[in-house]
Every structure is written in C-alpha cells, then in structure tokens.
Design a protein that fits this description.
InterPro entries: AB_hydrolase_1, AB_hydrolase_fold, AB_hydrolase_sf. The protein is 34% helix and 23% strand. With 258 residues, the chain is an alpha/beta fold.
C-alpha cells in the first residue's frame, strides 16, 4: 500500500495493488485507487494493453471515486492457464473480483475490447451496473474497418507462425464477435455514454446502430481524433466522462459531434 499526492490542492489518495486467483487458477492483477467511501468506477483497457493505458485518467478520477484498474486475463501482470482466451472468461474474472471486493454497484469505463467486455458483463450481471462509458466498442467484427481487419488478420497469421501463443490468443480475441444481439442491447436500462473518434478504426455507422439499439445512450464523436480518445484527448475525455458519471438526470439517445 502506498499514498499518492497530486499537488498541494489535491487530496491524498491511497493505491493498493492486489491479486485475484480465479477458480481456474488465473492470477488477475489489479489496483484500487482513490476515495474508499465513494462510488466505484472500474476501468477496462483494450486488446494487448494493460491498465497503464489509462495513465492520463488516474489522477482525475481517483479524486472523486474509488477506482479499480486491472490487467485483464492474459494481459499485463495477469495470467491465463488456459489455451484459449474469450470475452466470457474475462467477464467471469470481473464477476469474481466484484464479489471478492464486496461491490454491489459500479460504473465501468471500457476502451475498445474493454468496452466489449463491459457490454458483456452488463448482459450477464446487469444488477451490478450503474453506468457504462464505452469508447469505440465493436459488437461484431464487421464493425471494424476493412483495412484494420486485414492488418489484424495478417498479424495473427504471423504470430501463429512464430508460435507466440499468448500474443496470438490476444489478437484472436480482437477478431471475435461479442455475440450480443439487438435484444440484449435493448434490455439495458442504465445510462450509457458511447465515445468514438472521427478517424476511428470502427465504422461510424456501426456505433450509430449500436446507440440506436440501446435504450439510454448518448453517442459523441470527437473530431480530428482516432481510435484512442482517452489517450489522445485526455482533457476533454476526463471532463466529459466525469460529468456523465456525476449526472443524476435521466439519459436519452443523443448524438453529438465535438
């Protein structure tokens, strides 16, 4: 356990590094940071990343919330004893973590594949979810732009040829449909903020369709920005997401370009 200071006018926050050993023997590394008596916000990084992807978010969010930053299975300091990697495995890891930490309600911020995981967690465990922030999810692989899909498929062939099994499992996950249906999305009753870069690798029409199928969603398109909005536009992202998480009014379907 250690304390972090973010300037003379900022509160002291305590970071605790922890590990969860899952039922199948995976070790899931995560960090709890921020105000222990506040609402919980859990961050989910994208494919082949780790929790440090959100380095530009840690300071701002930990001042207002109890935040959880984890390395998902097969990523960062987390392990995977299985020969495969699926979204469902990661969802079950999250559920075990939530139960272990005695969390009854949380909001989730997911980037790319992390957003896909958040959606699936919401499908299987909706009672835990207060709000979702989803940055560039793709419910189906067809939502990824063709050239990006081609590059990823080529990378997967190279990794398999080199027998780099761990890396191949990760990349294969990014080429896997979530299995979420229109009916699944329409069942969600909590507020959802969708964020996409104008120059994203996800088709704009794909997220527009997803937003239409969600009952309580806002979609915001960030101009002159690519896939990685939290990293490329941290000031805007932090303020917008904090505002959304702190909203108490009802949410309706809305599209905004910024």
């Amino acid at each position: 356990m250690f304390a972090l200071h973010y300037g003379k006018d900022m509160k002291k926050v305590t970071a605790v590094d922890k590990q969860l050993v899952t039922r199948d023997g995976a070790v899931i590394a995560y960090q709890i940071l921020g105000q222990t008596n506040k609402e919980v916000v859990l961050f989910l990084h994208g494919n082949s990343q780790n929790h440090h992807y959100f380095i530009k978010q840690k300071q701002r969010f930990s001042q207002q919330f109890k935040t959880i930053w984890l390395d998902t299975r097969d990523h960062g300091r987390s392990t995977n004893p299985q020969e495969t990697l699926t979204f469902e495995m990661i969802v079950e890891d999250l559920h075990e973590l939530v139960v272990r930490e005695h969390i009854t309600k949380l909001s989730m911020v997911g980037f790319s594949d992390g957003a896909n995981v958040a959606l699936l967690f919401a499908k299987y465990y909706p009672s835990y979810v207060k709000k979702l922030v989803l940055i560039s999810p793709n419910v189906t692989v067809a939502g990824i732009k063709a050239f990006q899909r081609y590059k990823t498929e080529l990378l997967l062939k190279v990794l398999r040829g080199l027998c780099l099994k761990k890396w191949a499992r990760r990349v294969q996950l990014s080429l896997t449909d979530t299995g979420l249906s229109k009916d699944d999305l329409q069942q969600f009753t909590f507020p959802i903020l969708l964020v996409q870069g104008e120059r994203d690798v996800i088709y704009a029409g794909h997220l527009e369709k997803v937003a239409e199928q969600l009952s309580h969603a806002k979609l915001e398109i960030v101009n002159y920005t690519g896939h990685s909005v939290p990293f490329l536009r941290p000031r805007w992202f932090n303020e917008r997401v904090l505002s959304f998480l702190n909203e108490t009014t009802s949410v309706h379907i809305e599209k905004r370009e910024l």
